[in-house]
Amino acid sequence: MTSSKILFFICLSFVTGILAEAIIKIPQFFVCGFFVLGVLIIIFSLLSFSRKRESKIWIPFFKGMTLTVVGFCLLFLAMGILRFQISEFNIANDKLAQLNGKGQVVLAGIISDDPDVRDTFQKLKVKIVDPPAGEAGSTILVTTKHYPEYNYLDKIKLTGKLETPMVADDFNYKNYLLKDNIYSVMSFPKAELVSQKHNYNIVSFSYEKILFLKQKLSQSIQDNFLPPHSLILEGIILGNNKNMTQDLRDKLNAAGLRFLTAISGVHVIILSAILVSFLMFLQLGRIQAGSLSMILIWLYVALTGFTASRIRAAIMGSIFILAGVLGRQNTSSRIIVLAAALMLLQNPLLLIYDVGFQLSFFACLGIIYLKPSLNYLIEIIFKGHFKELSDIMAVTFAAQIFTLPIMIYNFGTLSLAAPITSLLILPVMPWILSFGFLFSIFAAISKFLGWIFFVPCWILISYFLKVMDIFSQPWMTHSISSVSWLWLLVAYSIIIAVTWVLNKRFVQRVV
After folding, report:
1. Does residue 158 share a domain with residue 30?
2. pLDDT tens digits for 380-416?
3. In terms of domains, do 82 and 124 share one?
4. What is the mean pLDDT of the chain?
C-alpha cells in the first residue's frame, strides 16, 4: 500500500468520524472503544512484524501493513468524532452566547469584515473586545440602521439585547451562522462610534486597502452602467449581489445562473477549470497554466473580499488546479480529500452547515472523475471539432451532475434550463471577467480610458441578460419539497455507479 493511499484512508476516516457524529451522536463509550481497538490493532500488527513471520491466525486481508492502517483509521475515526464533539462543547459553553435572551448588555468591539450595506439597513460582523462577562474574542452579527455608515476595523459600542439566531421552517439561520463561529445576533441596538484609530498589522492593513479598491471599482461600474447591467457586472466581478432586485434574483435562479453572480465554491472551481483550459489553448504548458490560474484565482478572491467562505473557495480552487497539474485521477482525489480533512480539522462544522463547502468538494470530484468520460463522449458528438468548447461543456456537466443532489436537498428547487444556460454563458465568462476588470480599473482612473472597454463589456453583459430572460420562464423551475437524506444517498450511489461504468469503458481512451 502506497503512502498516499494510506494518507487517503486516514483522512477519509477522520471525515467519516465528523459526519457520523453530526448525524447520529455517538456515545463516549464507543469513541473510547474505537481508540482502544485501534491501539490494540496497531500494537498487534507491529509485534507481528517484529517477529518477521506470519502469525497462524493471520488472514490474507491483513497481510503487509494493512492491519496497521486499519488501526490508524480507527484512531482517526475516533478523532473526527471527538473534534466535532469539542466544537459543539465550545458552542454550548460560549460565555457570550449564554447571555442570549437575558436582557440588555453593553459591548464594545471591532468591525471584523466589510459592512454588508443594504437599502435600509446594514449588517456588521463585530469581534467583541470588551464583553460584560467572560473572555473577549467572540464574534456577533449586528443589524443596524443604514446610517451612520461604518468601516472595517472601526471600534463601536453596542447597547442592546443578544439573541440566538432564528430557526424557521424554510431556513435555519442559526446553523448558517454556526460555520462562521457566530452564535449571537443583535438587532438595531444603540450603536456609538468609539474610535477610527485602527491598530493595523500587515494583514488588516492589506485587507483595508483591498476593500478600498473594491469600493472604487464598484463606484466606477455604478457611474457608467445602468441596472440591470451594473448589478450583473458587480455580481460577476466583485461578488456583490446585495443590491439586486428580487425580480432579478428570481430570474437568475430560474435560469440556473445565480452561482455566477456570487463568489461560491462551485463558481471558483468551474472558473479554475475554464482558466486552465483557456490558458492551455493559448499554448501555455500544464504547469504554467496551472500556476497562472492559481495566481489569478487568489487575486480575484482578494479583490472580492477575503471572507471565510471565499478563502475556502480559493483554497479548494487552488487544490483542484494542483490536482489537475498532477494529471492522475487517484492522486488528484486524494489531494482533494486531504485538503477537505485539513479544513474540517480547523472547522468541523463546515461539513454539515456549509453548503458551499459541500458543493465545491463534490464539484472537484465530479470534474476529476466524470469529466474525462464526458469529454470523450462530447468529442465523439462533435467529431473532434471545437475541442475547447468540448472541454468547457465537459467541465460544466460534470460539476453540475455531481452537485445537483446537494442543490435539490438544500434548496428544494431544480432549474431545468441550467445545463443549457451554463453552456451558453460559461464560454464567455473569461471575456466578461477580463473586460469587466479592465473597464472598472480604467474607468476609476479616467472615463475616456474606461470607455475603450465599455462597448465590449456592455455587449457581453447584454448577451448574459438575454440568455437569462429567455430561460427564466416560471415553468423552467421545479420545486421539490421534503427531500430525505436517504434520497441523497440513493442519488449519489447512482451517480457513482454510472461514473464507474463510464470510466471503466472510456477513461483509458481519454488518458
Report:
1. no
2. 877 766 666 677 778 878 888 898 888 888 877 778 8
3. no
4. 81
Backbone phi and psi for residue 190, each to the nearest 5 degrees, phi listed first? -75, 120
**388 and 500 both lie in a single domain:** yes
Note whether 102 and 88 are same-domain residues: no
| Chain segment 115-169, per-residue pLDDT in tens | 888 778 889 999 888 776 555 678 899 999 888 888 888 889 999 999 999 877 6
Q: How far is CA 500 from the centre of its chain?
A: 26
* Distances from the Cα of 186 to the Cα of 90, 116, 182, angstroms: 20, 15, 11
Task: Report how far Cα 168 is from the mean position of its chain's Cα atoms.
Answer: 24
Domain that holds residue 29: 3-92
**Are 85 and 102 within one domain?**
no
CA–CA distance from 6 to each of 10, 19, 229, 290, 464 (Å)?
6, 20, 51, 27, 46
Return d(Cα 198, Cα 484) in angstroms, integer. 49
Directed axis angle between helix 66-92 and helix 28-50, to 10°?
150
In sign, the C-alpha dihedral spanning 419, 424, 428, 429 is: negative
The overall pTM is greater than 0.70: yes
Q: In this model, does residue 172 exceed pLDDT 50? A: yes
Domain tally, the chain? 3
State whether 164 and 61 are in the same domain.
no
